[in-house]
Structures are given as structure tokens and as C-alpha cells.
Amino acid sequence: MQITPTLGLLLALSFVISLIALSILIWAIANRQVRTPDQDDARTIFAPGEGAEIDEHDKPHHFDPVRAGIDASSARPVLWLVGAAVFWLIYGSLHGLAASLELHLPDMMTGAAQMTFGRMRTVHLNSVAYGWASQAGLASVFWIIPRIFHTRLRHAGMVKTGIVLWNIGVAAGVAAIASGWTDGLEWLEIPWQIDIILAAGAACFVLPLIQTARARKVHHIYVSGWYFLAGILWFPVLFVIANIPGLHWGIEQATVNWWFAHNVLGLWLTPLGVGTAYYMIPKIIGKPVYSYAVSLVGFWALALFYSQVGIHHLIGGPVPTWLVTLSIVHSVMMFVPVIAVAINQHVTVARNLWAFKESVPLRFISLGALCYTLASFQGSIEALRSVNSITHFTHYTVGHAHLGAYAFVSLVMMGAIYQIVPRATGKQFPFPRMIMWHFWLNVIGFAVYFLSLTIGGVLQGLAMLDATKPFADSVTLLKPYLEGRSLGGGLMTLGHVLLAINLIALAFAKRETTETDNMVAAE
Amino acid sequence: MNRYLPLAITTLAILAIATLFLVIAPGMQIRGQGAAPGLQPYTEAEARGREVYISMGCVYCHSQQPRATAQAPDAERGWGRASVAGDYAYDAPHLLGTMRSGPDLMDIGDRLPSQGWQLTHLYQPRAISSWSIMPAYPFLFEHKDKAAQGDVVVKLPPAYAPETGVIVANQEALDLVAYLRGMRHDYAPPADGLRDDGYALMAAQAKSKTEAAKSAQ
Prior knowledge:
Number of strands of chain A: 0
Shape of chain A: globular
Structural class of chain A: mainly alpha
Largest sheet of chain B: 2 strands, antiparallel
Helix content of chain B: 25-40%
CATH architecture of the largest domain in chain B: Orthogonal Bundle
Helix content of chain A: over 70%
Number of domains of chain B: 2
Shape of chain B: extended
CATH topology of the largest domain in chain B: Cytochrome Bc1 Complex, Chain D, domain 2
Largest sheet of chain A: none
Radius of gyration of chain A: 23 Å
Order of helices and strands of chain B: HHHHEEHH
Oligomer: heterodimer
């Protein structure tokens, strides 16, 4: 037992602070100490006269020339981000698929060090995390922020500079990893010298958002704005602190590693995904979210609890007991914000299932939002010591990571791309049926992927805990499940290719002279 | 929730609290412990080999943190005693790992000390274990007609040996093997070594409960 009284006190204190903060918030709302956002605030995403029927491009909502100017100010940076994000999605998917194949066909690609599993897998992670998910999320941010604030995007030129820097950074980063130059920490592999370029790029995104927020024409900040404005501050702080070289070593560095790696999901990709869903779901359906006041509790509970869960990656490891327990407790408390988001988003969709049938972007987004709930519940349970003994060190964790980063964040972002791009360009996707194909390839592909790794991972974990079985058993039993993962991953990759084809065809298509045309032309 | 500045300050304050609990407080505690007595710093060849281990991404399949007997049979598998924070004092970057597609390597030098075994296994893992899914690393070796003086020749079964000539290890392979052979933590852990004792505590609690039930009978 190494829990000294001081540390025990600290541990209790952290949990008590979070609970008190949440209680004060609920008390303040109950006693009207803060003005609770109400359903009128939830309607700030609609223009006057808008918000009665589904938002589709062949029957666009009430046309508003002011809003058209808003869209035009952000259209170009948003389209740049979408293009770059989809490039990294394809690049990352191919590397992921190659890494997956290597695990059951180990002699397939042994010709060069660049192709070895340890590098392929890492190029995959960095491409999809920093190239795809972050940039697709930023595309949503730069599209949604001016619209909920009813003002044009400020400093669009600075955003473009940021996009260029960011992509140079990601490209240099994955090239470095492929050639063997790496910082060696999970999620922080890109060498710190290259991270300077990425940090400079990220800095270029912050000021335009703050300036746009300060110049807003509406009093209320819509819930998506809370998530986006918080996320865009959290990420640069996390990224810079975690990448300062020479500050930490040994186990101390491991705690920094997982403080960063889990917060990059919880305080960066999650706010991007949740914020996008909070805007897109009611916007597409044409009705405000179910219970807007609950979204306030959801946001602050996410900030309080999610920020301290990272050390559940080191359960049973050489780190202080109190620290692991702290992260487990906060992991379980994540049920609070997740249920708050679920009440708002799922009830809104469930009450309007007709829209689910009519809008394909909504299908991507609401299915993604549903997977946020599932991934979070799964994560809370996975952090329990008894469950973690089985699933830690196995492919079950990889399945869980993809439920969060893929089925939640990526599906939401793909839906957002299908929703935003026709509005930003004034053109329609040339192959609408291909969007349906993309949807089903991703859904079926991911189901195969997830079930394979989840079942395989549990069996792998149980085999490793059974001292009577040799280690080899945990490897050989896994083989069919690894093959299943490659099959699922292949279908998912195929879906992404269809998205890219549709985007490229749209870029070369002629603009139609429909009503949507005016929305872009009126600059 | 209508003003930007309070939102920004509060969100950053929450992150600062999280950093205090997850990074600063444990950092002070871990630094106070220092290196475990008995832990040797890496030799030059080992340090170079560690760089090869990092650049090849070995950490994505191999952990370096045997679990306690109260949690898992890692020690029974010969992976070594449960590690403590002081065992990693010379590690930057740390290589704890989160995956065991392959076995834990914290004590690989103790378990498989043979240089020849390690070289053959790196050149072609399936030459030793037919079930292995580990990548082969032929690019860390050279195919030569004849071994020169000082060359370390890799022993291979006929199925994996070249038809003519020999396979010799290059410097990277030799360094990597030096690192793996140096991975031995067979000294006694410090009495106050830091690690997650949650499972041991749970086991002790369960034990005292059953004993209390027995004495009640």
C-alpha cells in the first residue's frame, strides 16, 4: 500500500471538486441563478421562417441573403479542409488495411522497413487522427460557427494559412514515421520538430474563431459553440504541453502520454463530433433538440469527468494505485454527460424517424451519435478492474477505439460532409446512389470489423489469463478474427473511395442554376 | 452560457486541474522514488538497439509491464515479476505498451538470452515458431556469398535458408539483440516500489471476508 494520507486526500479531493461543481450547476439551474438556456435558445440555429421541414437541397429552407453571405465567407476554407481530410482518410484507410493484412499474412510485405507492421499501423493512426478526423471536424467548425453566430467568418485568410501548415505538418509527420524517425509515444509519434509546424497551424485556427465569436450577432452561444470553442482551446494546450521534449521520462512520461492520448479523444475529437451532431440533427430535421437545458449539464460534466480518465490505460501497471483509481472513478462518471447528450440527440431523432428515411446525411450523423453513446458506455465498463484484466492488451481495445473514432466521429463527419458540400459549392453530388452504397458499406464493414475484434479480443484475453494454456493459443485462436477485421476494413475503405469519387466528380461538375445557386453567388 | 470569456477561463481551469491530478502530482511522487536499486543504465549498444526497437514500432505488439500475480499469470509465463515505477528510470520514451499480440518483453533477456536464437527469430520468426504472426525483418540482415571476418552468421533451417551463400546480421540487428538480451529485471524490487496495487488489495479484501465468514461459523 503506497497511498500516503496526502495523496489519498488529493484523490478524494479531485472527485469531490467535480461532484460539487456539478451540484452547484444543477442547483443554479434549479433556482434560476443562471439563466437556463431554453427552447428559444435552441432555435438560434434557424433563420426566421425556417425550421418547419426537412433541409434538403432540392427544397431549401427559407432563403436569406444575409445568411448566404455568411456561407460564402466560410465556403472556401471549409472546402479546403474537406478535400484535405478525405485525402488523409483514403491514405490512412489504405495503411490501416495493409497493417490489418500483415497481422494474419506476416510474410506479405517484408521487403522494406517502411512496410513493416509497426510503421504501417502508426502511419494509419496519425493520418486518420490528425489528417482526417481533426480536419473534417474543423470543416464542420468553420461551417457551423459563423452560422450559429449569424455573422461572417473573420480572418478567413489566416484559416487558409493554418490549413496549409497543418497539412505540411501531417505529411512530414507520416513521412518521418514511415522512415523510422519517431518520438515513440502512442498518439505522439510525430517528431517534436515537426510538431512545431502543426502547433503553428493549430494556432492559426484559434484567433479567427475567437474573433468570430466576439463579433456574433446573437446573444446566445448555441451548444455546438460551447463544444467547439472549448475544444479549440483545449487541443493546442494539450498538444504543445505533451510534445515539449525532455521534460519527462520513465513512468512519469507514461502518465503524460495517456493524459494526452485520452484527452485528444475526449477534449478534441469528441467535442468536434458531439458539437457537429448537436447542430446537424435539429438543423436537418427542422426542429430544435428535445431538452436544451440538459445540454448544459452534459457539456460541463464532460469537461469535468472526461479530462481525468486517461490513466485507465495503465490499470495494473507500474503507476500509483490512487492515480489508477482516480481515472476509473471518473471513467464511470462519464455516464452522466453521455446520458445528457443521448437524451437530447436520440429523442430528437426518434421523434422524427421520417427524416431518418429521407435524409442520408442524417443517417450518417444520427447513427454516429448513437455510436457515441455506445462507445462511451463501453469505455466506462472497460475501465472497471475486473473487465480490464480480460480486455487490456487485446484487440478488444482496438475494436473499442474504432467504435469511438470511426463509428462515432468519422460517421458524423461523413454525414456533415454530405450535408455541407452541396451548400458550400451550390452543386449537388453527381452520384446520389453512391452515397447510399457508401453508407451501407461502412455500416456492414464496421459491424464485421467490430464484432470480429470484440469477440476475438475477449477470447484472446481469457486465453492469456489461463495459466494452463501456452501463450501461442492466444495468437492462433485470433487468426480467423483478424481475417474478419481485414474483410470489414476492406468494405469500409471501399466506402471511403466512393466518397472520394463523388467529391472529385462534384468538383468537376457544372453548377446548376437552382435556388441554392443564389446562396453562394450573393457574396 | 452567453459569454465567451468565462467559458474560455473555466474550460482551461478544468484542464489545469486535470493536469495537476494526472501529471503533476504523480510526477512528483514518481520522481521522489528515483531508479530502483539494481537497475543498470543502458550500454551504448543497448541504447542504439532500443532506438531500432522504437523505430520499428515493436511497442505496438509487445508490452513491457508484467502484471501482478493477483491479477494475471504473467509471472508463471516467465515474463518476470510485477514491475514498479523505479524499473523504468532510464526510459525515454517509455515503452510500456498497451497490446500483447506478442508476449511481454520486460524480462526477455532472462528468458531467451541466446544471441543466435534472437537473430534467427528476427530474420524469420516462423523459422522458430510456425504459429507466430510477428513480422520478419530481413532488411536488418545481409545476404552474402561468404561470411567475412567478424560477421555474425544467422543459423537457419533449410526451408528458410538461402540456396547459396549466408545471411549475416547487420549492425542494427546486432544492436537490437543487445537491447533485448539486456532486458532483465531479476533484482528484488524496492520495498516501497510504486505500482497499481488495486488487484492485490481486492484479493486481500476477499480473503479477509472469507476468513471472517469461516471464524463466524
